[in-house]
Amino acid sequence: MIAIDDRTDHHVLRTAFGCFPSGVTVVAALSAESPVGMTVSSFTSVSFDPPLVSICVRRSSTTWARLRPAGAIGVSVLGAHQADVCRALAAPGDDRFTGLAVETTPRGAVFVPGATAWLECTVHDTVPAGDHELVLLRVLGVDAGPDRSPLVFHSSGLHSLHSTTGPTVSGPGAATQPRQPRQPRQHGAA
Ligand SMILES: Cc1cc2nc3c(=O)[nH]c(=O)nc-3n(C[C@H](O)[C@H](O)[C@H](O)COP(=O)(O)O)c2cc1C
Fold first, then answer.
1. How high is the mean pLDDT of the chain?
2. Any ligand 1 atom below 6 A from CB of 56
């Protein structure tokens, strides 16, 4: 095991953290009537009552500084076919949305069509967390297409999910009756 101290190269931690696979989201809102957003893989569900999710954002992020004051923030959970959206929304510069169709809510949350889920949120709380900020988002509304295959971020790469067991429901809060496998839905408009 590699001992971690203040001088340890971040690459060591990044490699270990990257072994934990995650989904990929786009977090976006209107700022001065233009869409502002970024790719975020640190999204996690947190609480049902109240409905909370969290993201971790780098404290130096100029994008988060513009998103933070927004009245509402959209979280789009990207599908396996949206690797190009993931890359575009992580790119440097102000033109991340060029050529990308978006949907905007009356509160100013911005969503990416074709994603697997959409959550309209407001900032509930923030907690300083080293070089990142832990942001708790309160969920105001959701829409979801759970049969759409998600984009997966693992070991610095983008992947799609290959099910080995078919749909299972065994986590906390799961329905007590096993669900029947669903027929895949057509991908298309959100
Ligand atoms: C797959 C992926 C996941 C990312 N996840 C996060 C994240 O969870 N938090 C974060 O602050 N930045 C994350 N980023 C980086 C941002 O998308 C973006 O590159 C960064 O905000 C750019 O810096 P800026 O906000 O100063 O323009 C991720 C990038 C990629 C490609």
1. 90
2. yes
